[in-house]
## 1
Amino acid sequence: MKNLVFSLSLLLASAGASAGVIGFDDLPGLETEPIANGYAGFDWDGLGAIRADAYPGSGYAAGTVSFANAAFNHDGGTAAISRAGGFNFVGAFFTSAWLEQELAFEGWRDGVLVYASPASYVIDTATPLWIGLGWSGIDTLLIYNSSGTQWAMDEFTVPEPASLSLLGAALAGMALSRRRRPLAGAGPAP
């Protein structure tokens, strides 16, 4: 019984464990510099970081959900975020920099399309839109836009490996404790 209680507490703790959130606030926010590959364990193709105060009244200002910076597609085109070994993409906040536009997403694994967003998401310059996809087991996330102009992304959210390990440990502990517990009414064979 003690093992079951411990396992249940581990399971509850892992369910409430926070996801890893990348806010880009530790970057300088110089719009001419791309986000360096390896930042936060990812490769960032077509993305830079920009300060919230770079263009007052723009979607960059509205789109910075975290403290100081947001990522943005610096050339206005498609952006790719990848990690060798894969990752799970929970979601992120998106805001258009200059005009209303649509975003579409694809999740790839080993060069094979695994997920595609069921529809385009309309983003504007005034309100960050949380786009939660909950995709697992991808190694590349592609973000397409309809306008050829910039958008801001903040609070890029992926599960922390520690959270996944904790959940696995909790499930293993529950399975082990169930195996050791005798069935109700079962006794020694006559």
## 2
Amino acid sequence: MARVMLVTVLVLVGLASPASAAQEFRVLQLNLCHSGVNTSCYNGAATLQEADSVITAEQPHVLSLNEICANDLSRLAPAMGNGFSTFAPARRPDGGPVRCTNGDEYGNGLIFRSPATGTVFTGQYATQDGGNERRVYVCAEFADLVACSTHLSTTGDVAMSQCKEAIALLRGRAVAGRPTVLAGDFNLKYAPWFGPDVQDCNSSPFYRKGDGSVQHVFAANLQYARTEVTRMTTTDHPALQVVYSRP
């Protein structure tokens, strides 16, 4: 009988929680290391299974994805309610797409819980390192939201230039009062005592929240509520969710 009563209480709490959290707006950032190239953190299908579980548990409104293969979007979309999604491949120096070991294009993606269609804009950063991957951003713009995902260079000063370029790209929209988020793996840490410091690329009205390492979400015109960091076992980065409330 005690077990039945406990289950009943949990169900009732679950029914009440959506109303109390109705104003929440959640942005989830995942770097899945799913290209197959970096074998030290590649775990194949298990990574998508774990990502699916995290998405289902966290129920984000916006999902930012790095180091994924293009077809991963359709695999993860059901956990996001099959909302609007978009993908941008990283580029080789010759302009062609970087590819996963399975042949899919490799890059960054966004999935939204809303089915509304956004205006997509993507691009390469003006400053790049000497490697074989040209870093890119992918964004979707809606009437009431602008959201972007990016994955920056592993060279610190280059990553800083790219971060500043991304903020500058979005700043006009943010200054105009649009809720705006920029999420990703910036390969920069919040380290005021040991640079380069990711905070140095910030510009008002944006503010930044991170996972204690290289993943961050910059936001403007959203009220901060809390940061949630969840350990993941099938990739080399935790899940970073930043919770806001909408104006």
